[in-house]
Amino acid sequence: MKRFSWILAIFAIVLCAGYGAPIVGQYPYPVDSVNVSMPEVNALAGEQVLIPVTLSDLNVEGLISFNIDVNYDPSAMDYNQITKGDFTGDWNINANPGGGKIQIGGYSAYSLSASGVLFYLSFTTHSDVAHNTVLPLTFSKTILNAGGYTVTTTGGSITVETAIFGDADNDGEVTAADAAEVLKESIGMPTSIVANRADVDGNGSIEAYDASLILQYVVKLIDTFPVQQ
Description:
Elements: H1 2-19, E1 34-37, E2 40-44, E3 48-56, E4 63-71, E5 77-84, E6 92-98, E7 101-112, E8 116-125, E9 133-144, E10 151-154, E11 156-161, H2 176-186, H3 195-198, H4 208-218
Parallel strand pairs: 1-10, 2-11
Antiparallel strand pairs: 1-3, 3-8, 4-7, 4-9, 5-8, 6-7, 9-11
């Protein structure tokens, strides 16, 4: 009887030892909290903006999957696409957008053990969004390795700024100086103009014609630019 008890005791020790270490293919036991975040950025109305979703404070190897949901305001901006991050190039990552939510999933056979950008989300703000409107970006789900990590999240935002067309030098007003700077830009001279404010005819390039339109606006021959029509 004593011999049988010793056998059971040894078996229990071996069994516990087997469960004491992570097994390949299983997520690790919970570690110190990691953070998933998005930044606060500024963008012009009608402009495309790239939002990085960053994983930080990862200090243990073993991350092989994630499910993350990101919420945005579809009445003020459009979702374009997702691209892989700086250290997830060999991962499989997909996104399913709809109703102001983007459901994102990613996995790999090879684990991550460092912090970095998981993926980038591309949005385009609507051209009619009012100046200084703040568009929140929030997380509604963040699961790493089926819950193997404790996760905190930091949401981001896009603050929309309205461009003053014709204000090529970005000093807050449209003057003859803007026309002069645009002309210099059109012939390859060095300037510090803001391109999307200088292209007032909206054809995608900066030419002497843009300078002429800006000067016409300054002397009140026109009261709006073609790009605004």
